[in-house]
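A.,

Following up on our hallway conversation. Structure tokens first:
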């Protein structure tokens, strides 16, 4: 899809020693990166995860079917293929 260079580091539970079951996952991720949530942009296909990210004050991009509920606070794209163009619009 040509989007790997859009991401700094990819995270999973193995890197921060917690399952992705709540906002704590993202708190640990931001701490590992040494950044404040307000300085982060998280891309995820889970509306639940997007809500956790927004709770912490980070920006979010929801990826997936347009029938997903809109949060009103996250950018929505239907496919990762759209990510590079969306990031250019944010700059």
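Then the amino acids I'd put at each of the 91 positions:
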């Amino acid at each position: 899809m040509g989007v790997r260079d859009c991401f700094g580091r990819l995270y999973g539970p193995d890197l921060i020693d917690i399952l992705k079951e709540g906002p704590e996952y993202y708190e640990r991720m931001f701490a590992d990166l040494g950044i404040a949530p307000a300085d982060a942009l998280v891309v995820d296909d889970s509306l639940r995860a997007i809500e956790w990210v927004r709770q912490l004050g980070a920006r979010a991009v929801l990826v997936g079917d347009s029938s997903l509920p809109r949060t009103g606070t996250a950018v929505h794209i239907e496919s990762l293929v759209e990510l590079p163009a969306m990031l250019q619009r944010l700059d």
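The CA atoms of residues 6 and 25 lie 21 Å apart. Curious whether your intuition agrees with the design.

B.
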